Amino acid sequence: MTLKQKIVRRYEAMRKYYLATGLKISFPLFVLLMFVLAITASFTAFALIQFLPPKLQQSTGLLIGAIFFAVISMTFGIPMTLRNNRIDVIDSSLPDALKHMALVLKAGGTTESALEEVANSEYGPISEELKTSLKQLREGKPFDDVLRDTAEVTGSRLFMRTAGIIIDARRAGAGLAEVMNAIAEDARDVLRIGRERKARTVMHVAFLVISGLLLSPFIFGFTMSIVEYMSVGIATSGGFGQTSLSNNLTLSQCNVPCLAAEDSAMATFLSFGFVSPSDQKPLYEWRLAAMDQLLLTFLAIQSVITLLALGLIRDGRIIKYVVYFPFAFVAIMVIYIIGKLFSTFIINS
What we know:
Elements: H1 3-19, H2 27-49, H3 60-106, H4 111-119, H5 125-138, H6 143-154, H7 157-172, H8 176-200, H9 202-236, E1 248-250, H10 251-262, H11 266-271, E2 280-282, H12 283-315, H13 325-348
Antiparallel strand pairs: 1-2
Helix pairs in contact: 2-3, 3-4, 3-8, 3-13, 4-5, 5-6, 6-7, 7-8, 9-12, 9-13, 12-13
């Protein structure tokens, strides 16, 4: 398979995945809109950051880049969220829809009339998909193919398994109404187990979100602001004396050999904040900036671990929520800055 064929195949898979979201706009247009939104959000954030105190602007480049990447990542995150929500609605209404179809069949109706009854009822997305299926059935497409294609378009694994069982039962000559009744009961049991699992893990999920994504960045930002205030006070009073801590050095001079000699990891953490090499600050300020980047790095790693834990505990799929990491990191940075602002307000009041 050539590279072009792989790209086309991947694009078709993404387009098919996107169809299950229920969005009415085309996939290329959605990608374009998200790109424009990412640029707009980045420029807006840059303009708003200019109103912050200079001490809080040292991670401007990192925040702007994170916002742009976060919005771009929503090209996958939004469709995935909408698709999962739509699948949940389909799964929850599937047992009732199957029961409805079974009643129509027991009353002597045909498969077409059963589909029409469900399509014209208020079963949410599944009724919308069955309207398309009904149209295909009337155009001469076999019932088995219609049911299988409809299940694939919805993206619901429960619906796809149900469709497979119904098709096999029809081929074996079993009564379709009885099969649908039995599947409806089994599907209801599966959904009940899923709801019970989510209900049992509510407190665990709340603890992870509050501690890992909300409380930690606020505490770190609050503490970091106090450390910066104390360091500036010591330097202003001459507490550092005539040492390397109070000498004005450029970032490159600090890297070689000063930073490497004092702290080998300092230059690495400073680079995360996209600090200009021409900036001149006392060495203690570079160390504070490096500590600031170290805390943000820790919070980023912690957010990844939190998202992995959420996926494992809530849905049994460890990577389910990793796609939201860019957005989570932006939220962490904003809360981190809010913690700094709150601490600064208390100190200056």
